[in-house]
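TICKET #2291
ISSUE: user wants both folds in one file
ATTACHMENT 1:
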Amino acid sequence: ALKHGFRHFVTAIEDASRLLEKVRTQQSLFVRADLIAKRIDTLHSCWQQAKFEEHPLERTLAILLEELVIQYNKVKDKTLLPNPMLEEALGDFRQRMDARSRELCLVSKRNRRILLKLLAI
């Protein structure tokens, strides 16, 4: 059976890896810096424990921690989130864009732009 600490390290590594992948594929404006900060805190405590125990996963935790800190520093001043009003609007925005795209699928790009400009007026 695996030790509790080992499972804890593996979970922290998986969660941090998923977050890093998500952050790298999103525009900096829409990355939640607060979520990165929380993950950094979790990963840091795991890294300290692994370092104390001289655990084989210590180096992996250190690398992920460093990468998360780099990503956090890249987005912390650029992000618009957390912003409850914007996040609520963004959730519906994608659905509206998809619906509009389906509605105008037979209209040429030029005419679509003209219609959208008229709609904006």
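ATTACHMENT 2:
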Amino acid sequence: DYYTSIKKAILDYSLKNARERERLGLPIGFHPPTDYGSKPLIGLEPSEEWRNNAVMGAMKIRDTLRVFSKATLELMNIWPEYAKVLFVDLPNDFDCKYLEGFAKEQRIRMEEVKNKLANKWQQDAAEILHKELEYIPTDPPELRKSFFDAVATLMSNQVRSLIENSITAYEEFFKKYKKKTYATAAE
């Protein structure tokens, strides 16, 4: 039964932790759960035809998708350096700023981050992609196009997440100062 298997897997995983066993008042188990993948499977072996089909399927995926691409993994690995940088430079709660100065600081920060992405990030990405070019087959040409479409999507999503995080930080900053009523000019 599928649901029983899931419950057993969750229980086995939980009981691997000594503190959890102690919390539940259970002694050391007589039959410790198997760490799947830690030892060879004993039981049904796939047929030669099945293995060949699996290998051919993996090769087809590898040749058409870029999930296995070293370049896309490297692009994802360098991104955390840039992901923590926001397009906004928000003061802490105790800094008093005039609106003009605040707006100027934000424009400067946006320009700094834009330049960092345009210069450093693009250069790093170009180096990674240049190294990958020798491994991408030129025939059929659609394969190269699909690779670069995938890279463009990845990089676009990375920049989009940076913009979304910046907007969220901006919104949270201004929410701190929201009031139910505001003073009028006469007051």
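RESOLUTION: both attachments delivered.
EXTRA DETAIL ON ATTACHMENT 2: The chain has a mean pLDDT of 82.
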